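haha ok so turns out i had the wrong file open the whole time. this is the CORRECT one, sorry everyone. sequence first:
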Amino acid sequence: MYEEGKARIKYVDGAFLNPKAAISREISVAFVKSVAKGTSRVLDTTAATGIRGIRYCLEDGIRDLTLLEINANAYKALKRNLAFNGVKAAALNKSVQEFANTCDGNFDVIDLDPFGGVAPYIYDLMKISRDGTHLIATATDTAVLCGANSKACMRIYGARPMHNELCHEAGLRILIGYIVRMAAQFNFGIEVLMSVSRIHYMHVFLRLRHGSLKAMDSISNMGYAYYCSRCCFRTHEKAFIATRRTCPECNSELGAFGAMWLGSLYDRKTTRAVRAGLGSGAEKGAVALMDCIKGELDTPFYYDLPKLTQNMHMSSVSPVKVREALERAGFESSPTHMDPDAIRTNADLGTVKRVIDSVMRANHI
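then structure:
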């Protein structure tokens, strides 16, 4: 017997259940609690044992739930788990594509958590979406999105990935950018409500907005990130084609990465609501993660301090002391959940390096 939240999973025959993904499910349950009502139509597209959908019903009060599971054995386990938990829901032994092309109507919340990448499913899910639909998409093809397999990223997501200390954020932005391009074909724009990059997965929480102007507004937030491997300079621009070629700091050649989403990664109202929605019995890891996210500065591309101190030929420096020094100098700063040794700030690279130098000097006086 596996217990998580209020769900009890007894049948796993032929179905996939990853206990390490409990934190991801915890946050999804809190998110759905914040955006859905009992009357909301919710779709769990890759249900497996049914644990996520079962928790939506038992903990969020969802009464109109549809679960899809293409594997025949997993589907049988899913049906038995629904009955075991006393949950009444529509369970179908269908693929996402088959369901989306035969379904009558649309959904208020769509949860997509496949094994691997989300790219094969997004286009079809737009067919059963409406203005205001909330899309939760979880990608586990992080090797592709983070640049370990750059050719696959270019082929699947139509973007050149970063394979450096910024790869986790760049991967999130490439993932969102792909969804933006697919959604625009159906005259949907997106609002990014929350983004998570953790260990082996990337988790994005979006709201769709219908209309050609909304779609174009989202497209206008697409662009490119630039990075100098010599001095760690980074910048970005919203544009249809990459234009920058030379680093303004050291005159080296800049690498261009994207296209990717360059808009906001967080909506403060949402992150606060999700944190508040985590109950007293929530996973400690989920609580710590949301505590960090709800206070995270929403500026593109963090600074990885070990990478910078290595570039400056210095020993390691305390992120806390660097943030404190930046704030004393009048800049904003915060930790980032994507990297415990990194900081976010609205200060430029030169300022961050000068602050690091001053902190290091103060430590040696």
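The domain at 303-363 is CATH 3.30.56.70 (Phenylalanyl-tRNA Synthetase; Chain B, domain 1).
again sry for the mixup
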